[in-house]
Structure formats: structure tokens, C-alpha cells
Amino acid sequence: MKTSIATVSIAGDFQEKLTAIANAGFDGIEIFENDFLAFDGSPTDVGNMIRDMGLEITLFQPFRDFEGMPSDKRQKTMDRAERKFDLMQELGTDLILICSNISPHSLGGIDRAAEDFFELGERAAKRKLRIGFEALAWGRHINDHRDAWEVVRRANHDNVGIILDSFHTLARKIDPNSIRSIPGDKIFIVQLADAPLIDMDLLYWSRHFRNMPGEGDLAVTDFMKAVAATGYQGPISLEIFNDQFRSGSPKSIAVDGHRSLIYLMDQVARQEPDVEIDLPAMPDRILVKGIEFIEFAADEREAEELTKLLETLGFRLVGKHISKDVTRWRQGDINVVINTEQEGFAHSSYILRGTTVCAIGLKVEDAKATTERAKALNAELFSQPVGPGELTVPSIRGVGGSVIYFLDDTSDLGKIWDIEFLTPETVDELDEAGLISIDHLAQTMNYEDILTWLLFYTSIFNTLKKPMVDVVDPAGLVRSQVVENTQKSFRLTLNGAENHRTLAGHFIKERLGSAVQHVAFSTNDIFKTLEDMRARGFKPLQISQNYYDDLEARFDLDNDLSTKLRQNNILYDKDDDGEYFQVYSQTYGEGFFFEVVERRGGYDGYGAPNAQFRITAQKQHLRPTTVPKDATG
């Protein structure tokens, strides 16, 4: 499988783009003409530079307004094509993309277009070049790949083929299975792009909102399954127009792009086992059974503060590491690790960001297989020296440079608490407060990073994404994207801040990057749990009484429930499937906090309608010196 990407897909000058593309593992590039024109170098120099980086030029594009031009303009169009052929030969590529005509001068007619392509095919053949015809979704006369294929079929020339683009097919809701009737050798290249479902002008949608396969809502996998069924063996290439990508990191976007193609073709290969696809061997997407632990990096003083907060939540010290300054706190199935080592990864994390969640441990079916899949999908592996008696735990880098460890029950990794930790001589015998498990983790990041981590989690792990929702902060919107497994034992919320005046944005700024901002624990009885936590000194976040007045009106709550919610600062939500109760700790440090939730019935959300009131209360609680003056709206 040869992978390719259009230079227009990523930011940077031409040389920056090439470097990022080559380092990400692509085999080739589509040269978007404007990128070449803006570069100060001859076509021969550009071609040599590309090949020196181990890349090939899979396509030169675009050539516009070709087919169906009236007779007084037709010859000039042919002459213009010949000049592009000169350029292609100097660059060292043999394929050009011709997109369907949008000129008001163009004339309709399949046969007329076929005659134009036959003549141009003759000219191309003399130079050993190929021309590919692509139907733009907004083409004046041809805007459907089925019509483009009919033009190519009637042209009946070895040097004329069709170019397929997933966006142009799927945006117009054309059945991709119609591709299966096209001979694979007549498809000259396949371009891929996903996009969120938005009802807008096709051209504007295409030029601003395309994203990588797997990041949007289009049926790109079905499209590629249809292409694979034709026997097509050529390059698969990304053509992404996205304002966010154009201003992002070339390295990050290129890595995302390569990951998206591998993930896509892995899905196709598993769903179409009879189709031969040349892919690196990798395990299937990995089932995450749950979050085995969260690890905080801290110094001794801040660890003491964090310990006191955990004790108010009902956690008990149950283990001390055999050789490191690391402690284990437990309640229900929840493990919290506090690392105060003066060297190693956790210490480096603390120096950079202060007390924060530096790592999470995931319980998976097979830790080794998880690492193998992550590596095949360009994830960054992590390792550090292992001391006497310690296990080598498979791990990769995660959000914000944090670490994700993988544990399983098929090896000694499932006994890590017994192997690496000693039980303290005295263990707090107080009853726990009723916390059962980690309901979800909330990872906060800049908005432009959400798609990167969405693709990361959904490509490596057997997870689903839920529709993005807007979380209202008085200082602006925060976009929230949920990733979870079907068992609901692994839930993440990826929260993207668009400015630093929001609480989420302030957290990112103070933490110098993305990190876990809050951890939500589940309970079966939030009122009893809160009573137990209060007895230990827990102080819940104070919620405005006006919130409860409105709550009573919205949900017609009975007086008893309403009073209990109000007295305990518990927020409430309800839908057709069930109810949701949530209470928050006061903020710790620069915006980190804990949450306790109870789900009743089939409620599957995260209390998004309550976010605005929670955020307002948190901003009021934060120290005045840490909150921008305009951050409270």
C-alpha cells in the first residue's frame, strides 16, 4: 500500500511540508500547484529534492476548466495543458488531475467531453504521461463520479483514467458501491477526506471543513471498501482542505494523516477479507476493560495536600512502592498513585507542570498486542530504566506528553500491585465512602488538538466517538468530544478550549499544555457518599441557589429531592432514559478537580447542561490572582 498526501493538506512552506510528510512515513506527495509556484526553485530542483527525501510525486494538480469548452477556446485549453505537461516532465511525475469544468463557458455532453479527453490522451501518450478525470461535487455539468467514469469509458484511451475523491462522492450522498463496477486499472489515484456532517454549500464545506478519515462523519470506510473491490492497487492519498490544519503543526498533521490511512485500510482489510491489501501486520483494535490507575506527579508538600483531599473522598493508603517514593491509594476499584520521586519521568512532569496527572494505566486484553498496534499507528513508545523487582510495563506517550501504561491479566502485569508495592504496617480501617470506579476522565486541550486525540483513541482502542457538544463557559465555548467503549467501562471526554479566558483555557495555560483536568468517580448512592465524605472533611463546590430554583421549574422535582440537591450542592440532569447526579470538589491548584457522579436508569450523558453553572462556581472559587479579569464574563 502506497500512501500519499497533497501538499495543500498541511501548513508550512514547501520544504517544511516535505520534511513533515517524509518523517511521518508517507511514500509520496501530490504537488498542489500553488505550493510549487510559491517555492523559489526550478522544477528539476524540486523533483530532485522530493526524491532525495525518499518521496515520489504521485500527482500534479489541479488542471481546471478543461472538458467541454467551445471551439474558440478549445485549442487554447489544449495548449495550456501542453505547458503543464512540460512542467510535469521536469518535475518527474506522470499523472495530472483534471477536475470537472466549472466555467460558465463550458458546454455539456458526455460525448463532447470524451472527445476532449481522447485528444488530450493522445498528447499525453506521446510524452508517456497520464491524465485523470475527477468529478467535482459542484462541477457545472459533471459532478458525479458515475458521469466522470462514463466520460473516461467512452474516451477509451490507455492514458486516460478516473480519479476518485471520497468527499465529492459522499458529500453528494452518492452510493459508493457504484464504484465497484469500475475496473481497478482505470482508477489512476484515490483521494480521501472525511468531514463533519454540516448542511452548507458544497464548495465552502469542502474548502474549509475536510479532515482525516475517521475524524469526521462521512462513510469513508464504505467508500474505500468499494474501491478495494475493484482490484485497485495504486496510491491512496489525502487531500484535506481545513483552516485549522493550515495553521497547525506540520509534523502533527502529517502524523495524523499517515495514522488515518493505516487505520482506514486496516478497517477495510478486516471488513473485506477477500480483498488483498498490503498492510503492516497489527492486532485488531484493542478492548479496554477499564482504567486501572491514575498517577499524579507531585513534590512532598503538594503530595501532602493531595493526600488530604483523597482522604476526604474516602481513599486509604494501601501500598508503598518497594524502591521508589510512590504510594498507592485505593477505594472500590479505583487506584490513585502519587509519585514524588526526584528523578525520572514523573519528576520531569512535575517540574514542567506542577502537581498533575502524569500517567494513566489501562487494563486491556493484551498489553503486548496493544503496544504493537499503537506502534503500527505511529504512536510514540515510552520507556525508562526499570529498577530491581520492577516490571517492564508496555507504554506509549499520550495527551500532552503524558504516559499511558498497559496492564493485562495474562501476565505478571496483572499482579503489579503485589509485585511492586508493599502493604503499610497500618492501614486506615475506616469504611470507604462508596466510590466504586472511575466513571470518566476529562482531558483538556486546545481545540485544534481534539481531532488528533480523537483519531489516536479510536484507531488504537475499540472505542466509539459520540457527537461533539458545546460546553458553555461565561468566557466562551469549550468543545467536548466523548470517546468510550461499548461496555461503558472506559470513558473519556476530550475538552477543547478556544481561548485562555475560559476555565479550560486557563488550565492549559497554567499547565503549559494539555492534561487531565478532572477525574469523575461513580457511586451507587451519591447522597450517602457525600454524607460520608463530609464527615471526613470534604467541602463540595458551592452552587448558586438560583440554579436550584430553575431546576425545580425545569424538571418539576418533588420538594424532598429538590431540598436534598440544594442542601448538598448536587447538580442534576434527566433525559428519557434516566437521571444523573453530580457533585464537585473545590478546585485544586490551577483548576484541577474531582467529581462524583451517580447514574440512574440508562442515562448516558455527562451533565452538559450543568457545565455553565459549575464553571461559574469554580471561577469564583479560584484565587483572584489566577483568573484573568475578563474570564468571568
What does this structure look like?
By secondary structure, the protein is an alpha/beta fold. The chain has three domains: 3-271, TIM Barrel (Alpha-Beta Barrel); 288-422, Roll (2,3-Dihydroxybiphenyl 1,2-Dioxygenase, domain 1); 435-626, 2,3-Dihydroxybiphenyl 1,2-Dioxygenase, domain 1. Helix content is 35%, strand content 24%. It is built from 21 helices and 25 strands. Strands 17, 18, 19, 20, 21, 22, 23, 24 and 25 form a nine-stranded mixed β-sheet that branches. An eight-stranded parallel barrel has the order 1-2-3-4-5-6-7-8, surrounded by six helices. Strands 14-15-13-9-12-11-10-16 form an eight-stranded mixed β-sheet. A hairpin with a 5-residue loop joins strand 14 (395-397) and strand 15. The longest helix has 22 residues, at 250-271. The model is unreliable at 625-633 (pLDDT under 50).
